Amino acid sequence: MIRKFLLLLILCLFFKAGQAQTDTxxxxxxxxxxxxxxxxxxxxxxxxxxxxxxxxxxxxxTQVISRAQKHAIELSQIKLELSESIxxxxxxxxxxxxxxxxxxxxxxxxDDSSRFNLRYVQGMDNLINLVQDINQDFDKKIKERLNSLTxxxxxxxxxxxxxxxxxTLKDTTLIPxxxxxxAVIKNSIKQADSIYFAQEILLVKLQAKIxxxxxxxxxxxxxxNAHRKQLEHQSWTKEINYIWEKPNFEKITSxxxxxxxxxxxxxxxxxxYVTRTKIPLTLFCLVLIGVYFGLRFILNSIxxxxxxxxxxxDRVDYFKKHTLFSTIIILLPFFLLxxxxxxxxxxxxxxxxxxxxTTPLIKEQFGANFYKVWLLFLLPYFLLxxxxxxxxxxxxxxxxxxISSLIFICMGWLIxxxxxxxxxxxxxxxxxxxxxLISIESFALLANILGRFNLSKTYAVTGAITFYRAVGLxxxxxxxxxxVYLLIEYSKKESDSFTSYFDFxxxxxxxxxxxxxxxxxxxxxxxxxxxxxxxxxxxxxVEFLEKNRMLGNTEFQFGSILLFIVILYFxxxxxxxxxxxxxxxxxxxxxSRKQRLGTSILLIRLAILIVGFxxxxxxxxxxxxxxAIVLGALxxxxxxxxxxxxxxxxxxxxxxxxxxxxxxxEIQVGTxxxxxxxxxxxxxxxxxxxxxEIVIPNGDLLSQSLVNWTLSDKKRRIELIIGVGYKSDMxxxxxxxxxxxxxERILKAPSPKVFxxxxxxxxxxxxxxxxxxxxxxxxxxxxxVMTKIFEKFxxxxxxxPFPKRDLYLKTVPSSxxxxxxxxxxxxxxxxxxxxxxxxxxIPPKKKSxxx
Length: 851
Known about the structure:
Blueprint: H1 2-21, H2 27-38, E1 39-40, H3 46-49, H4 57-83, H5 88-111, H6 118-160, E2 168-169, H7 176-234, H8 255-276, H9 278-305, H10 309-314, H11 323-338, H12 344-358, H13 362-366, H14 368-376, H15 378-387, H16 398-419, H17 425-449, H18 453-491, H19 504-531, H20 534-546, E3 549-551, E4 554-556, H21 558-588, H22 600-619, H23 624-640, H24 643-658, E5 666-669, E6 672-679, E7 683-688, E8 693-697, H25 698-703, E9 706-708, E10 716-724, H26 730-740, E11 753-759, E12 764-772, H27 778-795
Antiparallel strand pairs: 1-2, 3-4, 5-6, 5-9, 6-7, 7-8, 10-12, 11-12
Helix pairs in contact: 1-4, 4-6, 4-7, 5-6, 5-7, 6-7, 6-8, 9-11, 9-18, 11-12, 11-18, 12-18, 15-18, 16-17, 16-18, 17-18, 18-19, 20-21, 21-22, 22-24, 26-27
């Protein structure tokens, strides 16, 4: 190829050199003759032969070569795209299998239509969805390939319609390379065109099979939906005789046949789903292994390296003995939501794993009595749960379902009796769970007695499954909190670790509510799903939220309002927790004031709330002009009664920008003093030195005089006034005081000072001034210095005077006069020594019990 184009280039240069030697006047005629002798211009694009009389042979040859090169490159790209074909071999093998599978489902569904139950419909629907997903994946790949082939076809059409390929040489001996090159390009076009049409025909055939399968799926789903509605309508009607009447279903069903067919179908469904979800299942196993070994490593590290390992591990009830089961309990609820559209058999296996993992942990959480009840009724639970997997109606199960309902009613009563007097959180939970179990199983028992077999079985199975799942989810919350506790304790060995700043008790309060909400949501989803009401509840909720409603001239939807509230709540939750974690780090890790976020946290909170507000407005499609009206009305309210609130809000923003206080500062506002714990939007919190928390409006922090002991640094000056007697040696006193101030904990710069202050009435006062490095220890050092002063003064016999008062009485009331006698002398009333003012001898008063 390169050799041919080089030859053409040399020919171009040859013609240009010949043209330079030709007379200018005869140039045009000569070129015309040469061109006519070389090319046949029939049906050639005018871009090549326009103004033929003024163009040279070299220019025409250059344009021909350029366009040929362009088409050669485009054809190479087209061939490359066509070579990257999809795996049609897999589709050709699986699509006929899907077709046969659909036909078999149709046949089986028609044969079993008289023995449907809701679980059959649900299981068949899950199976159809699984296979339909494979069919849709093939359809998506084929459509993508067809779109790329359409682009290839457009490019081929553009190349084939180029008039360049209508150009031929009259004299092939003069320039043989051009005709040869054009022939190669034409041959490449034919090859690409052939591959393109072959792939397009194959893909169209595969797409036709996919469309046929899709139609079959839709027909089958319509058939099942019709039967679903019929079964839901008939579930509350009488199906068989009352329990006291003679059975009438001996020849209708065969329990053994139902058992075998259901087992085979469940196994097939599980196989298809596992094949379909290989990657999520593998990921689940890897995460489980990673979390398990991570927790084992944390436990070993705490046990080997922590000073208080025994104290920490004594608070661990689950991971210390049952690490694997605890890990499974933590992860399993998340994976119940991770797998989309799971079949009933798959959900049942996950529930079984949860129950098995929960069993070893029951005794530590709920005690030995409940553990015995749990084990006693575990086998009936397994049997009833497996009975719920039967795809067809088997009325012979009536008595088994009846006995199972009685068994679980008995179980609920035993649990309630054991927990009714207990006050722990676990006992309260079990009490409510047992009441719910008794209620559901009693309803199932009543439905069975009245001949509503399918309704009875559905509620009996649901009651047992949801009770055991509720216990597992309750333990999920406890085990999750224990894992958080272990992580925090392990991280405390790293002083700069983020989790080392957390207080577990405070963090537990924040996390526990969310975990209980999450567990309750999973439990409610399982309850409605097993009862068969989930789709109805979901559809009704969606319809209720999306229905357009009118309020005056304004149209709105409850869904938009709910979305706005949820986004605003999430923004508030996010803002509060960011502030919480940031303030914890400020209080426990930031050494200097500049390292703290402090009041900047308030700006972050406001930014998150404002962004969340506008996102909620946009998502809920609330017009901003309506908000402008509300803000206008709000401004009127501000003028009348909200001045204080707005003042505090603006003051909070000023505090955030000006930063006169930070979280962790020691401040004094009026009579209130303490440590700043939080700078909020409206008010700030100060923790007083006695442990109380004082809420001060932000406006007061700006309007009143504020003393910040730690604004620039944490140093503090201590002042003492010490009085000594007038007879003391003042030089000795000063020398002793200066020697006491040489302690290592007293700063040398600024240096301590001792001044003779004043001459008081009873003492000479000395003023002592010295500095300590941080305000946190000033009380301790002050006490230490005063103690040393007292000891030194006692040692050197220096008097520390105290106030004295002399009392002079000018007159004494006569009733106050008292005769004083010598020791042992008795004054007889009426004698000379008796002044007559003494009180008569009165017998002593008897003492009361109170005296």
